[in-house]
Give the backbone structure.
Amino acid sequence: MPQTIEAINHARAAGVEIIVAINKMDKEGANPDRVMQQLTEHELVPEEWGGNVICVPVSAKTKMGIDKLLETINLVAEMSELKANPDRSAKGVVIEAKLDKGRGPIATLLVQNGTLKAGDIIIAGTAVGKVRAMTDYQGKKINSAGPSVPVEIMGLDAAPMSGDLFNAVSDEKLARRLVEQRKEEAKEEEFKAFQKVTLDTLFDTLQDGEMKELNIIVKADVQGSVEAVKQSLLKIENDEVRVKIIHGAVGTVNESDVMLANASNAIIVGFAVDVDPIAKDIAERDGIEIKTYNIIYDAIEDIENAMRGMRAPKYRDVDTGEAEVREVYKISSAGTIAGSIVTSGTIKRNCKVRIIRGGKQIADVELANLKRFKDEVKEVSSGYECGISLKDFDDIQQGDIFEAYIVEEYRD
């Protein structure tokens, strides 16, 4: 499924080991071989077939294979020499944090190395404090937590951010110094956010010799389009840079795509898809560029031009429809309304209008309002009557022709 492919790409981007748990083996007709075949299509070859990816059939419902999965995780950890020292000061990562009205800042931490004890002074991101209380994942009070143990703690002076690193330190003065250091680092990160790669800055980046690969995430409306866009982009050649598709999937550009783009300094190319509002907000905040297209050649040309440093936007008028004025109404509250009939195409609320009188253009203005009877509408099609009011133009006469058009950006 698309989310599995996405998980594979995220794991690869993070450079971590991949273990595949093939779930729902209790279901009738479960076919692990089919899943393993599909995994090979994404360059994950199971051990049984001569590869290096361990696949474990399991059932979350019946608990079948869970013991083997746990053994496999231990084995992979041992082979990779993923070890921690419990006899040192604790360090790890903030999983979650919140502000509780009664208890103050609460943080959920994952200890990655060392042992965290009640009473330890810790810094988490730019928050600092003493561990006043510590509970395990069942809410039971505990006094210490070793490597790989998640705990909820109280005592910080502020709620840290998810993903922040935490450290136990020997004294509060050291903690304060580290916090100041982290605040400086945060400022540097904020500065770097303005240096994210966009198509506009790509040529300058290439000239400075900073980039050898242009990472791209492709989202499209259907799988065929994903492949078509990927293959087309991969054919783009440049002496200085090569295009690398790090993820391709069907569906709306979402929050996860933006996170992946942020982690790998990628540009997101959307083909015939929308952008999730939350993803759009995060992308604007983090300086991630999302470009959407309906024509593959436009996407290819845009990136080719960016690689040559020739990305200059151009605009053209695209006619959408015509309407003829049949009656003119003057209303004190709404100004001049043209009672019209759409004679061809479509009149849209966000369009501009060329006013033709006696075969000559007398004005070019924005459409202010579009109504069918008393209701405001987004568009009116050929053959239907409508009421049209124009922005800053009241000299409308019976017989005037309105040529509606929209302005669109294009590439030569």
Observations:
- The mean pLDDT is 87.
